[in-house]
Amino acid sequence: MTSEHDRTQPVDANGHDDAVLPFAVEALDVRGRAVRLGPAVDTLLRRHGYPEPVARLLGEAAALTVLLGSSLKFDGRFQLQTRTDGPVAMIVVDFEAPDRLRATARFDAEKVAALGAGPLRTGDLVGNGHLAMTIDQGSAASRYQGVVALEGQSFEDAARQYFRQSEQIPTEVRLAVAEAVEGDGARWRAGGLLVQFLPQSTDRARLADLPPGDLPEGHVHLGAEAPEDDAWVEARSLVGTIEDHELVDPNVSSERLLYRLFHERGVRVFDRQEVRETCRCSRERVMGMIRSFTPQERRDMVADDGRIVITCEFCSRRYDLDPAEVEREIEAGPAQ
Length: 336
Hints:
alpha+beta, CBS domain Like, 14 strands, 31% helix, 29% strand, globular, redox-active center
């Protein structure tokens, strides 16, 4: 997932929050994207009052989703979703091109608390299940989904596995989340870097084949032993030097980080893409959902006070509806 741009921009000495910065290192045949999330991710995480481990996990998922979704070259939606047996049973992050981000998590507070206050791995929180990445252009025919099994690995490892298996593109991913003191209080920040090896030459583009699923037991897949390209080894090694604080420090811009990593090879940065936290929910969408229920199901939705109240899981906005008015709208049919 990469993006073509034809304009470069000067290096910015100051951090630029809530933005994605595409870049290319042509000498190494790599392209990538760096993301920094400040107010957007802080709003996402504080709105629901998530426990600290859950907030960090959702922040990582948000940064990864922006890295992947911001590469869409069309109006559409990229969604990252997990379903697992761990204390955090589900995470959903939506990125609607070109810049709209929203996210939510479902978790068992008692199970999260039982894990203790020490540093927790992603696997401790999500357990086993799957991570799905969905690209939706607005119709069933244009919908694509890739699935990765979650077996205790990090989101970074899951992303690498996805690209290796689904697209066979060598990919390196780094993610970081921190709660930093800024101004009058603490603020959540998240950041990430994605680098992909996209060689132009035929020789460099010849990758080791993935082992076939029907390989007889005891046989060695020789293709898997093909040496990695030196350019990709170098790029991946440089990315491996990134410290977490470099991805989230407001005083270290994405441009400065990229310069530190790749200045000897020459790095170009392209037009920055803004990111904003916003929800897709609306009264019209809520009514569309309610129309899918049977009359009895709609009657069961009426609370003791005689109202139908629906709260958006993403932004916590409450829709307080009059059941009689709902029925009149349904009888009148969808709004034109």
